[in-house]
Amino acid sequence: MARRPLPRILSNGSAQLARSRELARTAADSATDVLHPLITITRGLRRLAAAGRRRWTETPKEKRGALLFMVASVMLVVALLPYGPLLATVTLMAAAAWKGRDRTPAAPDGPDESQTERLKALYEALVPYFSTAEDPEPLYAHGGAWDKAFPTYAFDDGGRISHLVVRYPAYFTDGEAEARARIEHLLAAKSGRGREYHFMWDEEGNQVTLSVLLPLPVDIAAQRFVTTPGETVLGFTDPTQVRRTLPLTYGEQQRDVPPVVWRTGLRSTEPHLLALGQPGSGTSTLLRSVALQALQHGDVVIVDGGGTGEYACLTGRDGVLAVECGLTGALASLEWAAHETERRLIAANRAHQAGHPPPDDTKRPLWILLDRPTAFTHLAAADDRKDPQSLLQVPLRHGRPANVTVVVADQLDSADTLSDAVRQHTRARVVLGPATADQVESVLGAPPHTTPVDQVPPGRGYARLGTGPVHRLQVPATPNPYDDATSDAHRQAVLDLVPPRTTPADGETVPDPDPAQGEPEPVEPETETVPEPEPVEPDAVPVLTKPTKAP
């Protein structure tokens, strides 16, 4: 069936809405200018009436008769005078206009004394970087005019700089990263520590713009995000960095927040993810958030090298093939994942050669999540066994066409212990927790456009997808629901997203555990008499039509 073209109001509705909004705003401003005298007089009459009502209320009851007689006498005298009502009306309008005037104090034309001293100090600090002895008309000189170097500035309520445009001479080497980093560090130090600043360099106009970034929201709990299959929300960022927003629930309220969306699948250019951070920075929270989103449309294999039970809530759930915390189980699960990747590739290749669509068992996404795999590296070396990271080479190299996605999370101190395959094939990168600009650049491959701070909440960091820009990132709160330190609201939010328990083969349904009461007692299935298997003829060889799903 042929598609009908979209109506014109829908195809270019955004432009028409923007134009209509601009026309409405212009009309409202014009009407306000024309009706400003009437608005002022109406406001004054309302204030005069309120003052009269307040005076009548404050007058004692025994004196209200005399006050009423005096007001009536004045009105009678005014009515009997020639042109009395006209003069009274003019006087009343003048009093209302005076009473209804805008009493908001006018903003000062320039900075006050303290703000001027701050700008002068910043100007003097930039002189050694933006001046040279050969310049005949230096823009920066000791004791020079700072207002020429700072055409635009703004201060917050605390008297600190919140917005600043800095002009610099054309001979400054703004194309060198080190020179830019020195200027950014100086501006951030002189403008006030403990805040995040965004720097935008305009090489053509020879100026740099400093802006103070608002803190990212930390009260976003785990929930179902409005995404399509193949899209994973890593966290949320600034509204100026992305054009897309997601509707989120904050208790009984809803708000649109710009997300950082990671796309996986056959057409993804960043099929695998690497997350690094300090202890307690939120890398395990990020993996739990990714696992809960992946379980909506795929299967998950989790390897926990920390051994702290961060993923115990996912054990035995629908779609969770394995949650391994030991070296033997990790090796078995990753070896099965490598064989499953090869099987999917072979099945898809045979289908393509025969001109058929890929089999259904190769279309369901398979996620391999590893938390601190470097911990198993030391154990494997001590026991003279295979390193689990070596089994990731096949899923990392050939996982994209097989719908296999690998997510690795580890600590920044153990980044050198990661295998070459992990470092080469994880093009989506995340850095969480406090980190220097050099550490962020070494992981993401590009420096951030903001100044990192020393104290950040859990789940706060930076993200970069492939060769895209570096985004500030705040991971949604997805704590371990079995942790005693987890709040009831966050615990319930995670438990609402966890899939139900896997139904055993005998039909018994295992109930979900209550974190307050602990794990339920296991239910023993009824014993059944298993008949003896019949002997199989030598020629009758059984054929496995479907491979084993879990190790």
Summarize the structure.
It contains 15 helices and 16 strands.
Instruction: Just give the CATH class of the domain at 231-496.
Output: Alpha Beta
How much beta, percentage-wise?
15-25%
Q: Radius of gyration over alpha carbons?
A: 35 Å
User: For the largest beta sheet, what order do the strands appear in spatially?
Assistant: 11-10-12-13-9-14-15-16
Let me know the largest β-sheet.
Answer: 8 strands, mixed
User: Structural class of the secondary elements?
Assistant: alpha/beta
The total of beta strands comes to 16
Mean pLDDT figure: 83
CATH topology of the domain at 231-496: Rossmann fold
How large is the count of helical segments?
A: 15
**Helix content estimate:** 25-40%
CATH architecture grouping of the domain at 231-496: 3-Layer(aba) Sandwich
Beginning-to-end CA distance, first to last residue: 46 Å
Low-pLDDT stretches are 1-13, 505-510, 515-551
Tell me the CATH superfamily of the domain at 231-496: P-loop containing nucleotide triphosphate hydrolases
